[in-house]
UniProtKB/TrEMBL annotation:
Record InterPro entries: Aromatic_CoA_ox/epox (IPR052703), Ferritin-like (IPR012347), Ferritin-like_SF (IPR009078), PaaA (IPR011881), PaaA_PaaC (IPR007814)
Lineage: superkingdom: Bacteria
Species classification: Bacteria, Pseudomonadati, Pseudomonadota, Alphaproteobacteria, Rhodobacterales
Taxonomic source organism: Marivita lacus
Name this protein carries in UniProt: Phenylacetate-CoA oxygenase subunit PaaA
């Protein structure tokens, strides 16, 4: 890239200007955005599977309607994000293909199974809680379309987290069996939720450059710490125990000291060896194949309408 242009570009970033699709940008900036926004979008789409598993099994009609609304929101979040990625010159089909053949990732958290109804509470409380922690700062990201997508998405995320918190409260304050289920869900989702923020800063290959370009507003460890500090009091209020014996409040730091997740498990999961990776990608591949006739029909219909207009 032309050094002159690079300097001007970095000055724009540093002054907090938004970069828009038609502006000049370094190839690395474009590539990093396609990677991050594309994987963010994939996460929204794949993230519907663990929760979709419980729509037909929800304990009441009201819970079914709430879960249905949330899963539908996630599809919309995926749409906003694929739309933002397309402004960078990559098509949604290309991004989908790279998800389906494993060249692109989605959030590690969605490779864990949702075994009981209480998991719908833990996912809302922890996974959407973590997503809010990560997405709120991204509203100020330097790339215009991504920032605007984040603003819209964040408006819906708090409902996602609240409904999860409410499920956990209902069960934690319910029968002994219900409280046990809520505790079991917290035990299984705690460490995978910490992994959502990415590897520790010393192992984060992209953070430095992504922060210089304001594609990332905080480091992985900073957001993880904020998440723990916010979530531990919520678990305590629910009368549940965070599955970390080393957890303790550190007055000097003004935050909790806590045990790190098992990073070898994390790298294993993002390599494709998590509990549900095969199942998730198989589900997405099947949906893509089963939907081919719909895409073909729409394209044929559009071509017919175009031809009619020309005739
Ligand atoms: N799952 C899968 N891959 C992950 C990951 C995770 N939790 N955390 C990190 N990685 C990958 C990175 O993608 C990168 O691999 P790549 O080069 O092949 O892309 C590698 O691990 C190194 O990690 P870095 O920290 O260096 O990478 P990033 O700077 O990209 O940071 C991130 C990772 C914090 C996830 C960042 O990409 C980000 O903030 N993305 C936007 C937010 C996002 O995608 N959130 C995912 C959840 S969305 C969601 O939860 C939906 C909600 O509605 C439930």
């Amino acid at each position: 890239d032309d050094p002159e242009k690079l300097t001007t570009f970095q000055a724009r970033i540093d002054s907090g200007e938004k970069i828009e699709p038609k502006d000049w940008m370094p190839e690395g900036y474009r590539k990093t955005l396609i990677r991050q926004i594309g994987q963010h979008a994939h996460s929204e789409i794949v993230g519907q599977l663990p929760e979709g598993n419980w729509i037909t099994r929800a304990p009441t009609l009201e819970r079914k309607a709430i879960l249905l609304a949330k899963v539908q929101d996630e599809a919309g979040h995926g749409l906003y994000l694929y739309g933002a990625a397309e402004t960078l010159g990559v098509s949604r089909d290309e991004l989908t293909e790279m998800l389906l053949d494993g060249r692109m990732k989605y959030s590690s958290i969605f490779n864990y199974p949702t075994l009981t109804w209480a998991d719908m509470g833990a996912v809302g409380l922890l996974v959407d809680g973590a997503a809010i922690m990560n997405q709120v700062p991204l509203q100020r990201t330097s790339y215009g379309p991504y920032s605007r997508a984040m603003i819209r998405i964040c408006k819906e995320e708090s409902f996602h987290q609240r409904q999860g918190y409410h499920i956990m409260m209902k069960m934690a304050q319910g029968t002994t069996a219900q409280k046990k289920m809520a505790q079991d869900a917290l035990n299984r989702f705690w460490y995978p939720s910490l992994m959502m923020f990415g590897p520790s800063d010393k192992d984060s290959v992209h953070s430095a450059q992504s922060m210089a370009w304001k594609i990332k507003m905080n480091t992985n460890d900073e957001l993880r710490q904020k998440f723990v500090d916010q979530t531990v009091p919520q678990a305590e209020f629910l009368g549940l125990t965070v599955p970390d014996k080393t957890l303790r409040w550190n007055e000097d730091k003004g935050g909790y000291d806590f045990a790190e997740p098992d990073w070898s498990e994390f790298f294993d999961v993002i390599k494709g060896n998590g509990p549900c990776n095969t199942e998730r990608l198989a589900a997405r591949n099947k949906a893509w194949d089963d939907g081919a006739w719909v895409r073909d029909g729409l394209m044929a219909h559009a071509a017919k309408k175009r031809a009619a207009k020309l005739a």
